[in-house]
Design brief:
single chain; 494 residues; alpha/beta; Rossmann fold; pyruvate-formate lyase- activating enzyme; 2 domains; seven-stranded mixed sheet; six-stranded parallel sheet; 19 helices; 17 strands; globular
Amino acid sequence: MIAFVSNSKNIRSMTVPVHYLNMSSFLTAHGIENDIIEVKERSRFIDRPSEYYDNILINRIKKKPYKYIGLSCYTTDYNTTLKLIKKIKKALPDVKIIIGGPHVTLRPKDPFLSKAPVDVVIIGEGEYPLLNILKKKKSLHEIDGVCFKEKGKIIINKPQCLAKDLTHIPLPAYDKIDMDFYLRPDNMGIRFLVTSCIHIFTSLGCPFNCVFCANKGLYKAQNSSKIVRCKSVDQVINEIKFLKKKYGMEAFYIQDDTLTLDKKRVKEICRRLKKEKLNMLWGAETRVNLINEDLIVKMKYAGCRQLDFGVEAATQEALDRIKKKITIEETKKAFALCRKHGIRTGANIMLNIPGETERDVKEIKGYLKSLKADVYYIALTVPFIGTEAYDKYVKPRLTLKEYSLFENPFLYGTIIDKRFRLAKHNLPLEKIIAKMRVSLVLPKTILDFPLRMFYIKYLWKSKYKLAILYSMAKNFIAVFNLGLEFLFRKKSPQ
């Protein structure tokens, strides 16, 4: 029996743990008993130490005789995850700890070098390696895609072969988590649109090579080509139907990296959404060079009301430096098409991109205004481990203890380490991004969506009316305070 557990960094996260849901349903289909254990904090105004939530989690683990504990690890929670592992092992010394996720896929030796009491690291996707571990029909030496320590030596096995598609994954195990928590109205489902919303994936992977993204490194770690693997259309529709029927889901957001890469497939999903009369509000993220007018019309007809795009930079030179493989004209055209057909747009923009010049920065505000996006997401580029930006610019490399830099709550608004400054110029990035967030993000966050007819209709039909209005009020306070905090906090050394 295995329990998948989340650390205290996720206590307020409104995004369902898709990796755990998929793993759980896969193991259940193969006869392996498992649970997902999360501790959630419903209040935004209660600030308790992580130890409080860790103790609750460990007490829940103790209620059943689990032989294995599984955890996912990102660079942004590496130290938090390792601290939790040490606490679990101290409380339950006989339990086996298995860790997976993006960070240990890129750096499988790290947990052992950090002297964490980890038994096995899974490199890449965990379904089949974990199944082989739990079935105990093979020794660790015979299981592809794992790393472990034996007689003081760290052993990394050959990479596993990735499945060509996602049809082997059953319906995610939503029954293993508190769906009431995740269905609470929030403005980060369809971003900046307060809805009762669930994030779903219909595909995994991206064929592009942006310098700020770790996908390239993850593929390399798994010795895999850059393929995009998809669920079948039936899988996608059945999942949405299930969530609506069983849990009353009112909206969903497709979080695929490249949803519209296969336009024919997306059109078929849209056709089926209409045929099944699901009539739900939804949004998605994609690239400006992967849409056209015919596709936008069909997505709008099927209920899509928001598309978020990676605009990233305001000059072609900057886009080329980060290997985005889009043009300024493609971006303008995509936003114009969405505006023409009444689909809200979100523009993701980054400062501190590699080699950024003063001109790159000065062009941003005017460029964003010309796009007439409905919402803006503005952040500093962070050179995460596994990205080309990290490999090229972060020298000397971060030590294991320095991974805690990635857990800084101001990571996307502050240059928290001089090695993280990728720009060529000396402009005050903290002040620039703070002003942009207040002048561009704040008004759109508060004033735009409540006046849209589609949203008024959604609110009228929603069973969460009062909760949505309450959430709007909380969001107003939170965003306003965030703006003040960024404007008046102490400047960090750059």
